[in-house]
Design goal:
The protein has 95 residues and is mainly alpha-helical. It has helices spanning 9-24, 28-37, 46-60, 66-71, 74-94.
Length: 95
C-alpha cells in the first residue's frame, strides 16, 4: 500500500470514486453509519481489511481496488465520510 499524505491527489481521486460508487448503489447513509461504527476497529488497519474484503468485493465487484486502500487509511476514511455526507446533503436538496 502506498503511503498517502493529507492532500494527496491519489487519495482524493480514490475517495471520489468510492463515494460515487456507494452513492450509485443507494448506500450513502448506510455507508456513513458503518464507517462511524467502525471507528473502534481502525487501529487494526489492514488486518481488518482482510475481514471486510469479501464485502467490498461483493459491493464493487473486485473492480475498485482503491476501496481497500481508502479503508486501510484512517485519514482516507475520514475524508470518505465527509464526501459521503456532502453527497447525501446534495441529494437531499435535489429531492
Amino acid at each position: 500500500m502506498l503511503p498517502m499524505e493529507p492532500g494527496d491527489e491519489l487519495r482524493d481521486a480514490l475517495v471520489e470514486e468510492v463515494a460515487r460508487e456507494i452513492q450509485l448503489r443507494g448506500l450513502t447513509a448506510s455507508a456513513v453509519s458503518f464507517l462511524h461504527a467502525s471507528r473502534p476497529y481502525r487501529p487494526l488497519g489492514s488486518d481488518a481489511m482482510l475481514f471486510f474484503d469479501p464485502v467490498l468485493r461483493s459491493l464493487f465487484g473486485g473492480g475498485l481496488a482503491g476501496a481497500s486502500a481508502i479503508l486501510a487509511d484512517d485519514a482516507g476514511i475520514e475524508q470518505l465520510i465527509e464526501r459521503l455526507e456532502e453527497l447525501y446533503e446534495e441529494a437531499s436538496w435535489d429531492a
